[in-house]
Amino acid sequence: MKRENKKYRADKRGKKQRTPERVARRAKEEKCVEGELQGTERGSAFLLHDGGDYYIAAGDLNGALHGDRVRAREIRSHGHSRQAVVVEILGRGKRTFSGTYVSNRYGGFVAADERRFFADIFIDKGKNGGAQTGDKVAVLITEYPPHGNPKGEITEVFGRQFDKTAELKSIEYSCGIRGKFPEAVVKAAEKAAKGSIGQECFRRLDLTNELIFTIDGEDARDFDDAVSVRKTEKGYELGVHIADVSYYVRESDVVDKEAYERATSVYFPEKVVPMLPESLSNGACSLVEGEIRLTLSCIMEIGADGETAGYRFAESLIRSRARLTYTEAQKMLDGDAQETARRPEVAAALREMRELYRILAKKRAERGSVDFEIPEASITVGKDGEIRIEKRARDDAHRLIEEFMIRANETVAGALYKMKLPCVYRVHEKPEESKLQAFYEFVAGLGVPVRRSGNVSGKDFSALLESVRGKSYANVVNTVMLRSMQKAKYSPQDIGHFGLASEHYCHFTSPIRRYPDLIVHRILKSYLNGGKKCAAAYKDTAAAAAQQSSAKELKAQEAERAVDDFYKMRYLSAHIGEEFDGVISSVTNFGIFVELENTAEGLIRIETLKGGWYEFDEKNFVLKNKSKSYRLGQAIRIRVDGVDAISRKAEFSEV
Fold first, then answer.
1. CA distances (Å), origin 192, targets 197, 249, 274
2. Confidence of residue 2 (pLDDT cuts 50, 70, 90)
3. Residues 243 and 282: beta-carbon distance below 8 Å
4. How far apart are CA 559 and CA 167, in angstroms?
5. What whole-number distance in Å separates Cα of residue 405 and Cα of residue 398?
6. Which band of pLDDT confidence, cut at 50, 70 and 90, is reported for residue 434?
7. What is the pLDDT averaged over residues 172-177?
8. CA-CA distances (angstroms) from residue 443 to 455, 483, 565, 629?
9. What does the alpha-carbon distance between residue 423 and residue 493 come to, in Å, rounded to a whole number?
10. By C-alpha distance, which of 215, 236, 217, 235 is closest to 227?
11. Which residue in 86, 97, 425, 611 could disulfide with 628, CB within 3.0 to 4.6 Å?
């Protein structure tokens, strides 16, 4: 007689068969999480979750794609290693992509440029917009079938693959960079720019007779910040005078709505995609030498100890005395006789500015501000099309402007915080504990003594950077430390800025090119003209602007990096077969990335490395075997073997 159990029956192999009761009980016990998918080029994905990310294998995605919001069931969890399977697609992600079109007898497909979107998009016959195989195109996903690839239609043809114009348009479209301004926005901006400022001249603080000037890059076209410094009995008076963009861009008008959508200007080697139309960004709001301009001034009393003893804000009028480039300013600081003779009064002011800059920089260093030495690339294209890549200069002329802007941003943020008024803060959280621990373990592996306090601060990081200054691995420590830190973002909540060691920080100094600065100006001006009650009305506006601007900033950075990579690959393609000195900038299980002195980068695949088989030490960023090792930061001589124009990656080999 067969023996039965109310809960289950034994099958032929003795396993418990599922019953409705058992399935229900297990479902209760299973852990489900929700989040956004981030795809990989291999067709798998990660579910991004506040409690820790989950790996999802390609076979467990169940039709979900990069960017989708999903519910997933945890199937494995061990320490920081978590794996899940998608059980429900809660919402589809991005529907517009750029990519390369390939036709076939059924229609065709588009391979998205965004490599994390691993599914080709099927294009029915008649939906290709006239595209031919090899064209760079824009595609809109129109359907997600239960099985198979998503379907779409081509909405724009950019041109042929590998053509510079087509490739750059494709990058901009992929990152959501808005190109030409709508005609209504252009006309509204032109009308605002031509408006009279006569009435403003009678009510504003008149600083037109003060020695105020701008310092910017050689290729700068808009000048939104000017500075002034004079010595006082107790220290210095520092004036930071910012273009009053809010006078011309009125809240909720068509120009403002367009600026909100863009949120930031985007900078490419051969052009700028501005937040505001040219009539404002390069015209009425630009602090042009010799022209009267409307500004919002932050005037600070700085003591000899670097402390801000007092401050005042004012709607003001200025007339810039000089448009200096960083090169000209540095020559004056270096005592160049010719440059000094051209503008002796400005040269004298610059020397006082350097005195104040050094005081401010020392003060910021003492409180624990982290000053990274990470080189930035300056990419220029000559009239002959030749691409030149150099490290961007960062001398005293650059640093003093940076220091003055930081102090103004801190002063404005601190004032709004103390008055309990809204603000779009620029915040930078402390590193996550897991990344922090991994960083300290890496540094210890280099033989660097680590003194870790219970509550990590910028002082800990600054002291560590100072301890390795001048050492061969200093750049490596800088790089790995930067990777361990969180990204700065905008927030209506003031949680401070870890990297700058600032208790209060916001962006006030660039309203021509950043929307958060424009909101901060409006809040500050509302307070100056209408008091706290008037300024308090911006609470919801500040929160919305913070969220929008943080998202748009990430897309702008993505576009700028992709375009820089495109130019770097074009540069390297002209140097195939040539040898260069470089430094190992990243170590992976499939090879090492090498960065050249000018910041161009390429991959040496593990199978081409000299010395046989290598093991990957992920903890210490090392590939090693019994006789040889390749470590992050190690100097290496390479040869440029080729460039993959599709992935925009260069192939190197060790010499």
1. 10, 8, 17
2. very low
3. no
4. 12
5. 11
6. confident
7. 95
8. 18, 13, 29, 17
9. 8
10. 215
11. 611
Spatial distance between the Cα atoms of 491 and 539, rounded to a whole number of angstroms: 11
Q: Is 419 exposed, middle or buried (0-12, 13-18, 19+ CB in 10 A)?
A: middle
Question: Counting every residue, how long is the chain?
Answer: 655
| Strand, coil or helix: 264 | strand
Distances in whole angstroms, Cα of residue 19 to Cα of each of 12, 16, 99, 224 = 16, 9, 48, 71
Contact of 332 with 342, CB cutoff 8 Å: no
What are the pLDDT digits (tens) for 131-174? 999 999 999 999 999 888 999 999 999 999 999 999 999 999 99
The pLDDT of residue 158 is 98
Tell me which residue has tokens 């950075």: 557
Helices 254-262 and 539-573 cross at an angle (nearest 10°) of 60
CA distance 635 to 595: 10
Question: If you search the block for the tokens 């991959």, which residue do you land on?
Answer: 603
d(C-alpha 414, C-alpha 613), whole Å: 56
Contact yes or no for 234/304 (Cβ under 8 A): yes
Question: DSSP secondary structure string, 313-352?
Answer: EEEEEEE-S-EEEHHHHHHHHTT-HHHHHH-HHHHHHHHH
Instruction: Quick: pLDDT tens for 518-556.
Output: 999 999 999 999 999 999 999 999 999 999 999 999 999
Spell 64-80 as b/e; 16+ CB within 10 A means b.
Answer: bbbbbbbbbbeeeeeee
User: What is the token pair recorded at 96?
Assistant: 């517009």
What gap in Å lies between CA 395 and CA 215, rounded to an integer? 13
Cα–Cα separations (whole angstroms), residue 128 to 100, 123, 143, 147? 12, 6, 15, 22
Q: Which residues contact 252 (CB under 8 A, 6 or more apart)?
A: none
User: How many angstroms separate the CA atoms of 457 and 260, rounded?
Assistant: 34
Mean pLDDT check: name the lowest of 31-45, 68-82, 408-422: 68-82
Tracing tokens 């030495």 back to the chain, one arrives at: 373
Q: What count of other Cβ atoms lies within 10 Å of the Cβ of residue 414?
A: 19
Q: Are strands 214-216 and 266-268 parallel, antiparallel or unpaired?
A: unpaired
> In this structure, is the dihedral angle defined by the CA atoms of residues 341, 342, 347 and 348, taken in order, positive or negative?
positive
Compute CA distances 602 → 171, 185, 504, 592, whole Å. 20, 42, 40, 8
pTM for the model stands at: 0.90
Neighbouring residues of 179: CB distance < 8 A, sequence distance ≥ 6: 172, 273
Structure-token pair, residue 227: 């500075």
CB 301 within 8 A of CB 235: yes
